Amino acid sequence: MASEELCARIRQTGRALMMSNHTMEVFPPQATPKQAEYVLDLFDYEIAYREQSKRKRLIRRAAFPVPKTFDGYDWSGVSLPTSITRPELEDASFIERAENLICFGPVGVGKTHMVTAIGMAACERGMRVRFYTASELVLKLMAAKEDGTLAKFLADTCANDALILDEYGYVPIDRDGARLLFQVVSRVYESKSLLLTTNLEFSRWGSVLTEESMASAMVDRLLHHGHVVTFKGESYRIRHALMNARAKGGADGDG
């Protein structure tokens, strides 16, 4: 007969697989040690397979434009506040505390890469994430309002553990769109995490939302349980385009 320790491990993994308590109490003690080891290996494999499948589903559902991780990420132009550490960003643990993240800086310096990598890490931890550009989310909100599905769309969107809003301030938003976006921010306030990238100083948010009072209220909610990460430097895309151009020019000159 299998040892009590081995039977206990089978019962634990079996319950994780939603096997009935009755089955887990009756059958493991009847197994030989080899049979019990085989069953435990089978259960462990199934649990690992389900967890891997869940992570893949979460990543697909998040709709990241391009999957990114922190492998090889350039932190040289990133300035972190004292309220959060690099490991907390890399493992997305701040999302479990429903804290916000505002990534501020010029275009092409790694803001979108950072929030995507954080979102991927959150999915790996089993959290639900959804990625939108700010203009995309506003268009979806307005379409949902038009066809009478706004309440459902808001409920589905705000049910995520983390909501990523990329490129806030890049495209102007009209009054109706601004109010709908503010509804999202208000709904997730203190219960979910919002990760936002922008190249716009807080003092200029009123020009995007059309109302200074709404902009102030939005900033207040984001900063209450939030961290502002500042980015500096030249655009990664421009820098590499110039490097490629110089390399090509050098090669032509050598010829």
Q: Structural class given helices, strands, pairing?
A: alpha/beta
Mean pLDDT, to the nearest integer, reads 88
Task: State the distance separating the first and last CA atoms.
Answer: 79 Å
Total beta strand runs: 6
Largest sheet: 6 strands, mixed
In DSSP terms (H or I, runs of 4 or more residues), the helix count works out at: 11
- Gross morphology is elongated
What does the radius of gyration come to? 24 Å
The helicity comes to: 55-70%
Trace the largest sheet across and list its strands.
1-6-2-5-4-3
Low-confidence stretches: none
Q: Helix-strand pattern, N to C?
A: HHHEHEHEHHEHEHHEH
Strand content: 5-15%
Explain this structure.
Helix content is 55%, strand content 12%. With 255 residues, the chain is an alpha/beta fold. The radius of gyration is 24 Å and the shape is elongated. It starts with a helix and ends with a helix. It has a 6-stranded mixed beta sheet with strand order 1-6-2-5-4-3. It has 11 helices and 6 strands. 29% of the residues are buried. α8 (175-188) links the parallel β4 (162-168) and β5 (193-198). The chain has helices spanning 4-16, 21-26, 33-62, 86-90, 111-124, 134-146, 150-158, 175-188, 205-209, 212-224, 236-254, and strands spanning 78-79, 100-104, 129-133, 162-168, 193-198, 226-231. The mean pLDDT is 88.
